[in-house]
Amino acid sequence: MAQSTRPNRLFRNLNAKIAALPMIATALVVFIGFTVWTIVHSFTKSKLLPKLDFVGFAQYERLWGTRRWLVSIENLAFYGISSLVFSLTIGFLLACLLDQKIRFENTFRTIILYPFALSFIVTGLVWQWILNPEFGVQNIVRSLGFSEFVFDPLYNADVVIFGILIAGLWQGTGFIMVIMLAGLRGIDQEIWKASRIDGIPSWKTYIFVVIPMMRPVFITALVLIAAGIVKVYDLVVAQTNGGPGNASEVPAKYVYDMMFKNQNLGQGFAASTVMLLSVLVILIPWAYLEFGGRKGDK
Description:
The protein is mainly α. It has two domains: 1-41, no CATH class; 58-297, Orthogonal Bundle (MetI-like fold). 72% of the residues lie in helices and 0% in strands. The chain contains 14 helices and no strands. Helix 2 (14-41) packs across helix 14 (265-297) and helix 3 crosses helix 14. The longest helix is centred in the last third of the chain and has 33 residues, at 265-297. It starts with a helix and ends with a helix.
């Protein structure tokens, strides 16, 4: 009996399996295949064209000995940690405000979410104009009589990353707010009724009851933010193009410049592989928390 049922299971939903073959082939060839190809060539001294001339870990040693790459890692670390903290905090607070069933909720939600519909290039250009000292915030404040006011973060190497962070938060916080709001709307209203009856302040209910219940929502938002942080590129190019000097350099721009401007594929592949490892560092804990934790609960 067991042998006779195996063919039936194999051919069950056959049309759906056949329809999925192109997607599976694309995933295997494009994603897995080219990922392995990139990793292999990161151990070569490929220049203008890829070639299997292996040099061991020489590209990685050179990579971590390059000041420009180290600056890009420092910038990404600061931008990433700040973006995670502020996006989650501001997004959750905005969601809490909108969850109070305020008037014109749809209007406010649309206004806050609207920047997310813009591309990073558009966002970068908009904030480049806003932060430009000649006709942006600095010029407006000085026109009001504060002639000594200085606000030019994109032209100051010490604080340029803050200017990029402001633009990133402006675009992405609305999306996090919507995710958090969906999570809040999924909380049973009986919990709020019980907390009011027991005289528990709302802020304690949020911290000790609501936030723990929204753990999957926070994890999802965390992964989405982190994935966007690792590949941040357009925003930097549009606002500063990595300047002044290399003060706002990020890993994705370093990879692009190595591969297409400096024609050093081996170095670009090595940097890409390091970025891939950083993504895996994010995805593996997320997969464990999402799926491993559920199995443990059972």
